[in-house]
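Appendix B.2, paired examples.
Example (i):
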Amino acid sequence: MSNNPPRRQISLLPLQEFRFELEPGESLAVTLLQGSAEVFGFELVPGQPHPFGDEVRAAVWTPNGAELEMSRVPPFVGR
């Protein structure tokens, strides 16, 4: 069994946005692969996963176009 979370790539054209909404207990990581994009006015750092979780509503917006990767983040299990 693979431990890698499912991933999805999304292409955004200039001035487009990708909206998402998470349910309680869900989490998601957004990684900027190419271009430029922002969430709530904060630029995403290319190649850096940006995690979101627990009932968040957000939109990734791009002024010039972007390639994004979305991946589910497995829940944290403490010891």
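Example (ii):
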Amino acid sequence: MNKEKGSEMENGTLTIGDKAPDFSVTAINKDGQLALSDFVGRSPVFLNFMRGLHCPFCRRAMAQIQQIDKQLEGMGVE
């Protein structure tokens, strides 16, 4: 938990309007890592965290996201 004084995450919780902390994950569509900071200043970002494709709920969520993918793209969401 980030407990830096004056930080948006002083108590470990983000609220609406807070800046998300930077983090990185292994990219699934290219080599290397993807960091949230890679998208700063570009466009809104849609994040979806899933357990994996072995999870039936995750597969259902992925199918639903694919249905609105073009809509999100049209709104400038990456």
